[in-house]
Design brief:
With 134 residues, the protein is mainly beta. The chain has one helix and seven strands; from the N terminus they run H-E-E-E-E-E-E-E. About 5% of the residues have low confidence. The structure holds copper (II) ion.
Length: 134
């Protein structure tokens, strides 16, 4: 009888153990969800070749977020492409500009990775669909 009880306890606990998240700390977590991020491409509409990506960071009150360190990673929605990387520089308060080379026409997305002046880590994904081929 004691064996049977143990078995039942095991049955009750086992599914819970399986459901516990695997504890994988996803590095894609956005540490600053209140920050508004805008991405504008130039030329507009974006075209294959060298262009400029302008990222605007604003706080929840609409004020510019200065002093962030910002990186961009451009990817396409299909496998087998090399991502393009770029560092952005703050040209105007809260406005960060990076040179990007769009190597192919089609649907792109940009991963924005910024360390804010207050130390928070911001991560966003922004779609840039329909890059035109020359
Ligand atoms: Cu591609």
């Amino acid at each position: 009888m004691k064996m049977m009880q143990r078995f039942l306890v095991f049955l009750a606990i086992a599914p819970m153990t399986i459901l516990v998240p695997s504890g994988c700390s996803k590095s894609s977590t956005d540490g600053a969800p209140d920050v508004k991020v805008e991405l504008r491409m130039s030329p507009d509409p974006p075209t294959v070749g060298q262009g400029t990506a302008t990222v605007t960071l604003t706080d929840k009150d609409g004020g510019p977020l200065r002093g962030a360190t910002l990186k961009l990673e451009g990817n396409m929605n299909h496998a087998g492409m090399k991502p393009v990387f770029a560092d952005a520089k703050e040209l105007d308060p809260g406005k960060y500009e990076a040179s990007v080379n769009l190597t192919m026409g089609g649907d792109w997305f940009f991963l924005i990775d910024a360390v804010l002046a207050d130390g928070r880590r911001l991560k966003r994904k922004i779609d840039v669909p329909g890059v035109k081929s020359r």
